[in-house]
Amino acid sequence: MIGITLKKSLKGIAILTFLCVLSLRGFGQNTLFTDSLSAGYIKIGKTYITGNKKTKAEIILRELDFIEGDKVDIQEFNQSIVLSQQKLINTRLFITVEVVPLFTSDTEVDILIRLQERWYIFPLPIFKLADRNFTEWWVNQKRDFSRVNYGIQLYHFNLTGRNDKLIFRTQFGFTKQYELQYQRPYINKAQTLGLTLRTSFANNKTVATNTDGHRLEFEQSDDINRRIFSSSGTLTYRPSFYSRHSIDAGFSRASVSELITDANSEYFQNGEALQKYFRLSYVYSWDNRDYFAYPLSGNLFRGEVSNYGLGIFNDLNMFSLRGSTSNFFDLGGKLYLANSLEGYYNFSDEIPYMLRSGFGYRPDFIRGYERYVVESNAFVSNRSEFKYKFISGIQVLSRRSLIDQFRTMPYAFYFKAFVDMGYTGDPIRSTTNNFYNRELMLSAGLGLDIVTYYDFVVRFEFSVNRQKQTGFFVNFRSAL
Questions:
Q1: Which residues are CB-contacts of 423 (< 8 A; sequence separation ≥ 6)?
Q2: Which top-level group of life is the source organism from (predicted)?
């Protein structure tokens, strides 16, 4: 009776959390303009663009807060300039962006946009860890180099000059994978609809089949033990600069060997060795952060509704809700504050082990618990950090470089303090010794963030959790 009551309470808490998050969307924009101009309106004249050797002008003009012929309130003009500059940076097409007003009279202004484009084509070798994070590989898997993926990948981040992306990956090692993806942000004349298509095939000889004490347990052999084929398409609708709607539809087919089903009969639903399903999800986001890779001001809200199965195949039927809100504050004096709140609930009573969710799996984590996975049908988390930017600038690498995109390197260093907390609901059935489920997870620590070229972020963090376990962790993306 107590278990039933607790499960109903958790379900109510999860739904309430999701609804609360829905109400916390970004309310507006920071007031960044100065009062140096007098009251009245100013007319936008011609717009001049320099430095866009590859990028089409319409992609650049789409991000501006104004168009030629607009009459803009002078008191809001400076803010429009700053916001336009931020949005151009967030296209991830340019290293540097300057939006410069050229006043032709007291009531008219032309706009000069100076850009330095990124290098868009990256044929890169693949050499990355197959595990959840660096700590999982370093500590739990004892730095086993057989758990490394290697291969070659080709990225083209501006294929036709319209901010469209082509990705091709051939990967070997721990996971053998072939992947092809094409993304075009605008497919209509109004530049409001976008489309992404992707397909991939992967197989593994080593597969995580169980979780005991929040540590993954693996089965392996000389034969292939898991094959996964997936294909999907995403249609996006961007009616304004900050809001985006996405509908994603996909199909997956996965099969496992007898070794895997013997180790965990609930790896797939109903104890099957083959799992096929269609997936449909809807995502709404409101994003006015100043810099996507490492935001310092602005807001991000995201709500997601997903269903796995769609009633076409009988072996899977899952419905889930997810919501998050992140807020970033520039406190002045190189001080910054950030907070992120997230909630998730899976309404299915039978969650196959392969499709488990919880802390420890991207994108969900609590710092200080990087060694563990805490699977559950529901969770809520909050991450906060206070930081100080003590070094920043642009380093000239070589004035003689034949490639403009590699002549300079921007950088910034942040010292920070953080506090994370989380709570999960019931564990999924095919896990054991779940001492962190239904318990408050709490941690605090200090860290150093380095932000540099091409959205590269590295985090060095020392943390202590509620159980007084300490650790030094290295990660390669922003925590919030």
A1: 379, 380, 381, 438, 439, 440, 441
A2: Bacteria
User: Of 226, 280, 286, 214, nearest to 251 (Cα)?
Assistant: 280
Tally of CA atoms within 13 A in the half-sphere of 288 that contains its CB: 17
Helix (H) or strand (E) holding 4, with range, is helix 2-22
Looking only at the bridges linking them, the beta strands covering 108-117 and 41-50 are parallel
Distance CA 35, CA 447 (A): 37
Q: Which two tokens stand for residue 125?
A: 């070798």
Considering the entire predicted model, what is its pTM?
0.76
Q: Which two tokens stand for residue 162?
A: 């319209």
**Does a structural domain hold residue 151?**
no
Cα 138 to Cα 252: distance, rounded to the nearest angstrom:
31
Residues 200 and 327 in one domain: yes
Task: Provide the residue range defining the domain that includes 104.
Answer: 41-117
The answer to whether the bond into 363 is cis (omega within 30° of 0) is yes
Last residue of a domain, one of 101, 117, 133: 117
pLDDT digits (tens, 9 = 90+) for 449-479: 999 876 789 999 999 999 999 988 888 888 8
Q: Output the six-digit token pair for 377.
A: 């049908």
What pLDDT, in 10s, does the model give residues 16-65?
343 333 333 333 333 333 344 445 888 999 999 999 999 999 999 989 98
Pair (15, 91) in one structural domain: no
